[in-house]
Hints:
Elements: H1 4-31, H2 41-69, H3 74-96, H4 102-128
Helix pairs in contact: 1-2, 1-3, 2-3, 2-4, 3-4
Amino acid sequence: MMLKLTTTYACFLAFLFIFLSVRTIRERRRSKVAIGSSTDPALERAVRAHANFSEYVPFALFLMAISEIHGSNPVVLHGAGLMLSFSRISHAFGISRLDEDFRFRVGGMIGTFTTYFILMASNLFLILR
């Protein structure tokens, strides 16, 4: 089975991951800090945006892939993929700013958790029907 929808969102999110990685590398070079974040707030925010992305996205894509394998409705998968994508962009934007507007961060986490719940419900529905 080809996981076309999951693959589509995984590729888009991989692009975002690379963007966050490059930004972290640039901040490391600017601050001359190879490990950790020292006391540099901009570097700490870049590191956390990158790490937070890597903590939440893989499991969401795993849930999405399982849902697609089980035959989930493409509308559900697109909804989850779009919500995850916009949520992670919002969170990364919010956490990266020194003059942080918590609405972006909070909105990003709410959207990410909602994506998890949608995909969990989809999977449970599909295996119990």
